[in-house]
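I trust your eye. Have a critical look at both lines of this record:
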Amino acid sequence: MAPAAITSVCFDWDGTLCDSGAAGRRAFRKSLAEFGIAFSDAEYKAVYTPRWRCMYEALGLPENSWQEADRRWLHHYEEEAPDLLDGAADLLDTLRRRQIGLAIVSSGTRSRVIKELDRLGLRSAFQAVVCHEDVVRRKPDPEGLELAMARMNAARTCCCYVGDTAGDMQMGKSAGVLTVGVRTEYVDPRRLEECLPDAMLDCVAELPGILW
C-alpha cells in the first residue's frame, strides 16, 4: 500500500490520542484494591489490554466480580480529566487541513469517550466514533474498524489505523488497512512489535512522516 494513497485515518482513542494511560491505571488500581488485589506497574504493563476483563482474569479477579469492577473503574475514572497527548491536537489539525477523513475505533464506553471528545472540543473532528457498544465482536476482531470505514465510506486500501496495543495492530491487519503502532510507557512495546505493524512511531505526532 502506498502511503500517498491514504485518504482516511482511524485512531484508537486511549493512549493513542488521549493521554489516558496514567488516569486509566490509577482508576484500575483503585478499583482492584477494593477487591483486595494489588499489582506493580510492571505487572500492569505486561498484561495491559483495552479488554479490561482479560486483565481482571490475568490479575486474579474472580469472574463474578467483573461487572462490579467495571462499574467501580468508571466511577474512579470520572474523577480524572485526561488531555490529548503531546502533538495530537496539531496532528488532527494537519490531517483535517489535508481533507483526510478521521474516525475513532475504541474499546472504551461510548458515554465516556463522547464526554471526553466534547470536553476537548473534538467531537466534530471525527466522521465516525465506534465504541464497544457498537459492535458484537471487540478488538482484535475487525468489526469495529470495518464499521467505521463503512460510516466514512472509506476504502480499506486508502485507510490507516493507528493504535498502541497488539489488539489494535491485529485488528488493522485483519481489516486489510495500513497499520501504525505508537509506543507508550503503559504497553510493552515488544507485544506491539511482534504484530509486525507497517510502521512504528515513538509519538503519534510523527504520523505525517509516515503518510507523506
Remarks:
- The chain has ten helices and six strands.
- The chain has two domains: 3-20+83-211, 21-77.
- The mean pLDDT is 92.
